[in-house]
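Narrative of activities, Objective 1.

The group set out to show that a structural description can be obtained from nothing but a protein's sequence at a throughput compatible with the screening campaign. Below is one input-output pair from the validation batch, recorded exactly as produced.
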Amino acid sequence: MEDKVKPYIILKNGGGLLTVLQTNEKGYKKSIENNQIWAVNPETERLLPEDLGGNPTGFRERTGWYEADYSIAAAGDAADAASGGEDGPVAADDYSFLARLFTLISKRKQELPEGSYTTHLFTSGEEKIRKKTGEEAVELLLARSREEIIYESADLVYHMMVFLAEKGIGFNEIVSELQSRE
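Output recorded for this entry:
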């Protein structure tokens, strides 16, 4: 079976979102073995170590993505982490995580940090983003097992958020539209 690339969500100790990268099973296992984040570089598609200015403190494999807790070196972030983070721990039913993820994606659009898959999408242009979003929608429709459906759904939601950010549409606008349909 192909080693699928999945989102790699890096949380500050205490639960605040630090960054979102992409990795595969090999990268996740290498992260644990070396106690260093290993992610897939979106341009070269190579597995490389990531220097996020701190150290991983815990790893979890979730359905459809990987997670790591991270102690960060920057003084402000370290104080935030020590206080439990501004957002607190992310629970499986805490949908505010989606709003934080969208905020991070929007920040990536403005800052375009090197080595970020999100940056790669934004610098590749709207057509690339449209193509990836459509590809993920098709992969979801073709998924058969529960695990595949969950994985492909996560990919679709992420790429949809990148598309919304590219078009200047706030995630809150989508949430408002959904609420109006209750």
